[in-house]
Write a structure and sequence with these properties.
Helix content is 51%, strand content 14%. A hairpin with an 8-residue loop joins strand 4 and strand 5. Bound molecules: flavin-adenine dinucleotide.
C-alpha cells in the first residue's frame, strides 16, 4: 500500500493550485459581489484540461482518474470553493456526455465542452423533488422530430448562465426507469429561467430555475438510451460527491493555514494567542480532522478508480465525513479569528457560507447515511 502521490499527481495539484492563486483568488470576492463568474475564465480552465478531467484522452479529454480529479478540486478550492464547485458540475456533465452520448451528439457538442466554450449545467432537482430525485415530473413527450419538454428544474447552478443543460426528464412511467437524459442548448425555444436565487454562499455562481414550456428539442439531443437517464445521473454523482468533498477539504485547509498564521500574530494578555494551550489543542484537532478527511477522500476515490463493488458506499461516506469536517473546521477558524473572522476582509466568513451547501447538495448528508445504512443492512 502506497499513500504517496505520484510525481504526476503532485504536478497536477501544483498546477491547479498555481492557476487558482493566479486566476481565481484575487477576484473571488469581486465575483461574489457581482454574483457571477466572468465567462472568459472558462477557456483558460479548458486549456489546462480541467474542463474534461475524466473524459478519455482518445476523445480529447485529460483522461485523469477520480483521485487525480480530487486533487484539482482540492487545489482550486484553496482559491475559491464556489468557482471550483461550479467546474465540478461541468465535468460531471462532460463525463455523462462522453460516456453515454452517441457519436453524432458527441461530434457536435464535445469540442465546445472540452474547450469550455460551452459551459454545462446539470438539471436533476425539481421544486417537488430533491432527495427523492426519481420522483421528477418534467415531461418529455415524443414528437416527429424529437421531444417537447414541459416542467421546471429547481436550484440549477448556472441556470440562465450556462450554454447547455444536461437534463433528467420523464419519457416513461413513474419511477427511475421512466427517466431519460436530454441535452438542451441555451436559446432553445420554450426554454426560460427563473429569477436569480439570493443565496447564503456560492454567491459567485448564478443559481436559478430552468423552465421548459413546450420546449422542442431534436431526437439527436437524447443522451444514450431512453429510460436509462436516472442511471446516468447517478453514475455522475459518485464522482461529483468526491469533488464536492475535495472542495470542502481545500477550502478548510486554506482557512486552517490562514488561522495558523493569524494566531502567531494576534496578541492577547501579553502573548500571541497561539501560546494558549487550549487553542493549540484546537489547532491540533483541526489538523487531525483534515488529515483524516484527506486520507478517507483519497481512499474513496481510489475505490471509484478501481471499480470496487463498494465504491458508491465509500463515495457517500467520504462526502458526508469530509464536508462535515470541512464545515466544522472553517467555523472553528472563524472563531479563532475573533471578531475579525466575521469581517469579509479576512476571507473566513465567505468559506463558512460557501461550504455550508456542500452538506446539502449532491445528495444531502442524511441521504449519504441512507446509502451507507442500506448497504450495511443488505450485506449483513
Ligand atoms: C446552492 C444550490 C445549488 C444546487 N445546484 C443544483 C444543480 O446544479 N443541479 C441540481 O439538480 N440540483 C441542485 N441543487 C439541489 C440540491 O441537490 C437539493 O437541494 C438537494 O438534493 C436536497 O433536495 P431538497 O432541497 O429538495 O431537500 P429535501 O429532499 O426536501 O430534503 C429536506 C430534508 O429532509 C431530509 N430527507 C429527505 N429524505 C430523507 C430520507 N429518506 N431520510 C432522511 N432524511 C431525508 C434531507 O436530508 C433534508 O434535510 C442545488 C441546491 C443548492 C442549495
Amino acid at each position: 500500500m502506497d499513500f504517496a502521490l505520484s510525481e504526476e499527481q503532485t504536478a497536477i495539484f501544483d498546477m491547479a493550485y498555481a492557476f487558482g492563486q493566479d486566476q481565481i483568488a484575487p477576484y473571488a470576492r469581486a465575483w461574489e459581489a457581482a454574483g457571477t463568474i466572468p465567462k472568459d475564465l472558462w477557456p483558460k480552465v479548458g486549456a489546462l484540461g480541467f474542463a474534461s478531467l475524466y473524459v478519455s484522452e482518445d476523445a480529447g479529454g485529460a483522461g485523469l482518474g477520480r483521485l487525480d480529479a480530487t486533487l484539482v478540486f482540492e487545489a482550486l478550492s484553496m482559491a475559491c470553493p464556489s468557482v471550483a464547485a461550479f467546474l465540478s458540475i461541468h465535468n460531471m456533465c462532460a463525463k455523462m456526455l462522453d460516456s453515454f452520448g452517441d457519436d453524432a451528439l458527441k461530434a457536435r457538442v464535445m469540442p465546445g465542452v472540452l474547450s469550455m466554450g460551452t459551459v454545462l449545467s446539470y438539471c436533476l432537482t425539481e421544486p417537488g423533488s430533491g432527495s427523492d430525485a426519481a420522483a421528477l415530473r418534467t415531461r418529455a413527450e415524443r414528437t416527429n422530430e424529437g421531444y417537447v419538454l414541459n416542467g421546471t428544474k429547481a436550484f440549477i447552478s448556472g441556470g440562465g448562465y450556462s450554454d447547455a443543460y444536461v437534463c433528467m426528464v420523464r419519457t416513461g412511467d413513474d419511477g427511475p426507469k421512466g427517466v431519460s437524459t436530454v441535452y438542451v442548448e441555451d436559446g432553445a425555444e420554450g426554454l426560460s429561467f427563473g429569477a436569480l436565487e439570493d443565496k447564503m454562499g456560492w454567491r459567485s455562481q448564478p443559481t436559478a430555475q430552468v423552465q421548459f414550456d413546450n420546449c422542442n428539442i431534436l431526437s439527436g439531443n437524447l443522451v444514450g438510451e431512453e429510460g436509462k437517464g436516472f442511471t446516468y445521473a447517478m453514475k455522475g454523482l459518485d464522482g461529483g460527491r468526491l469533488n464536492i468533498a475535495a472542495c470542502s477539504l481545500g477550502a478548510a485547509q486554506s482557512a486552517l493555514d490562514a488561522t495558523l498564521a493569524y494566531m502567531g500574530e494576534r496578541k492577547a494578555f501579553g502573548q500571541p494567542i497561539d501560546q494558549f494551550q487550549g487553542l493549540q489543542w484546537r489547532l491540533a484537532d483541526m489538523e487531525i480532522e483534515l488529515q483524516a478527511a484527506r486520507t478517507f477522500l483519497r481512499h474513496a476515490a481510489w475505490k471509484l478508480d478501481n471499480d470496487a463493488p463498494d465504491a458508491t458506499k465509500f463515495c457517500a461516506m467520504a462526502k458526508k465525513f469530509v464536508t462535515d469536517a470541512g464545515s466544522k473546521v472553517v467555523d472553528q477558524c472563524l472563531q479563532l479569528h475573533g471578531g475579525y473572522g466575521y469581517l469579509a476582509d479576512y476571507g473566513i466568513e465567505k468559506l463558512v457560507r460557501d461550504l455550508r451547501v456542500h452538506q446539502i447538495l449532491e445528495g444531502t448528508n442524511e441521504i449519504m447515511r441512507v446509502i451507507v445504512a442500506r448497504d450495511m443492512l443488505k450485506n449483513r
